[in-house]
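Here is the promised in-class demo. Please do not try to memorize the tokens; focus on the logic of going from shape to residues.
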């Protein structure tokens, strides 16, 4: 059927969908390039990663010998899936001067999810599930996010689109030597390990700025109320409605459950939103759309998710009156055991 014979509503809907896709692609490229501004030309850290098949890859040992192409991705990410043929083709044609590594962002994905997608899509390059270290080192902000490291061991490109800019960056990276691995590169260090806050630990004495611009203390000596930390994503309910409907439903149920429980004036609430594919404006839109009343913090860098060892949303952490973490519930555990909401309800004024 020709475009002239299509109903007008179908043509308009298709045009709007294409426009939305293009805007998302442009936004992704902008966010990725912004994340890479402080990285371009800098020595890449000597990280060691392990693939899901148990292979250890020492990136530091590759610097000076091979260019490296890291692609952050997720099984639920639509543009990641769209770009996978390009990614696999790059791996198949890489040759000895280019190492290609798929880095699953480790956000709302399990090893089983990754293996199933790998099998279904016929992906054969080395596959790593990040524990947060690689994301921290390369300022992960979107998926996919491409990071290209030249043979000289320096970051040469960060982007979102699989386009001619990426292809050119990969081509140039293979010949980038700049005198080989310098003393500066050899002195580069991997990010320090993150000390996780676990059940039984006290909340750390850190602060964060909420959407209103006010500083929030995670541990406030002047406030003896129990604290509940709610880890969320502002796009979980909407974006994942089609690709991961069960996860989207979990996020919606968590929000509704928090809304009911947060009526307790005897409990402190802090909502922590992932900075992956999210800005303060996105979080404000989420807050307005759903009437969220608890203070919200955008974890743009991902540091708070890493400190509390959170790899999926929704996740809820509860502390007692002394500020010690007593419960951590993730995913559908939030709903399988709702004793925490009953406990909070018993404290209501």
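The designed amino acids, position by position:
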């Amino acid at each position: 059927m020709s475009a002239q014979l299509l109903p007008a509503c179908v043509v308009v809907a298709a045009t709007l969908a294409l426009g939305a896709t293009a805007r998302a692609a442009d936004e992704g490229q902008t966010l990725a390039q912004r994340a890479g501004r402080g990285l371009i030309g800098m020595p890449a850290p000597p990280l060691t990663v392990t693939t899901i098949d148990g292979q250890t890859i020492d990136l530091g040992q590759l610097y000076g010998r091979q260019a490296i192409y890291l692609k952050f991705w997720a099984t639920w990410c639509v543009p990641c899936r769209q770009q996978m043929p390009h990614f696999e083709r790059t791996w198949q044609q890489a040759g000895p001067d280019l190492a290609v590594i798929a880095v699953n962002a480790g956000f709302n994905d399990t090893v089983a999810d990754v293996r199933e997608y790998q099998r279904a899509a016929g992906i054969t390059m080395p596959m790593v599930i990040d524990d947060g270290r690689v994301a921290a080192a390369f300022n992960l902000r979107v998926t996919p996010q491409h990071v290209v490291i030249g043979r000289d061991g320096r970051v040469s490109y960060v982007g979102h689109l699989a386009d001619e800019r990426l292809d050119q960056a990969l081509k140039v990276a293979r010949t980038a030597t700049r005198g080989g691995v310098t003393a500066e590169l050899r002195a580069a260090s991997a990010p320090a390990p993150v000390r996780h806050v676990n059940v039984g630990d006290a909340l750390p004495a850190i602060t964060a700025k909420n959407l209103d611009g006010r500083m929030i203390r995670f541990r406030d000596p002047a406030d003896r109320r129990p604290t509940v930390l709610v880890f969320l994503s502002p796009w979980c309910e909407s974006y994942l409605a089609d690709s991961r409907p069960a996860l989207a439903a979990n996020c919606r149920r968590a929000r509704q459950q928090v809304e009911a429980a947060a009526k307790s004036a005897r409990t402190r609430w802090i909502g922590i939103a992932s900075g992956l594919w999210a800005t303060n404006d996105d979080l404000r839109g989420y807050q307005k759309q759903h009437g969220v009343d608890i203070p919200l913090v955008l974890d743009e860098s991902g540091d708070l998710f890493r400190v509390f060892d959170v790899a999926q949303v929704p996740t809820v952490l509860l502390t007692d009156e002394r500020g010690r973490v007593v419960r951590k519930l993730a995913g559908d555990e939030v709903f399988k055991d709702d004793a925490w909401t009953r406990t909070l309800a018993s404290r209501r004024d």
